[in-house]
Amino acid sequence: MSQLARDVKTELDNRDEKIQATLNMLHDSINKLGEAIKKDEEYAQETRRQLDDIRSRLNGIMTQKSVTESSSTPHPAKKKTSSVLNGMKIMSMETGMAWIRWYSLAG
Questions:
Q1: Keywords of this protein's UniProt record, alphabetized (predicted)?
Q2: Cα 89–90–92 angle (5° rounding)?
């Protein structure tokens, strides 16, 4: 073989090695990405399962609450106690004195 043919063969072999190294690196990267995607899918499935559990518990709580509210007897409204201050309004104040208007509830 001539020197030129050996140099061309050496150059092509070097390029083949670089291409093969790049292909191996890409293959490893794709495998790692596939593993990461698989882990993410497993995490997403677990998260969905937890969300479904929480939804079912919440629905149970809401059902219990609506049953409790519908079955409980309503409490009578509390009576408001009248105060002697009802109907009073401060109109103005000056040096310790206040002018108060009092609206009578009776009439």
A1: Plasmid
A2: 150
Phi, psi (degrees; rounded to nearest 5) at 104? -80, 135
Please, are residues 104 and 87 in contact by the beta-carbon 8 Å criterion?
yes
For Cα atoms 8, 4, 18, give the angle at the middle one, nearest 5 degrees: 15
Domain ranges, ordered by start, for the chain: 1-71
Cα–Cα distance for residue pair 84/102, rounded to 1 Å: 10
* Cut 0.90: pTM above it: no
What whole-number distance in Å separates Cα of residue 102 and Cα of residue 61?
51
Give residue-wise pLDDT tens across range 46-105.
999 999 999 999 998 888 887 777 666 566 667 666 776 777 788 888 887 888 887 765
Q: What is the CA radius of gyration of the chain?
A: 43
Of 102, 68, 99, the closest CA to residue 85 belongs to: 102
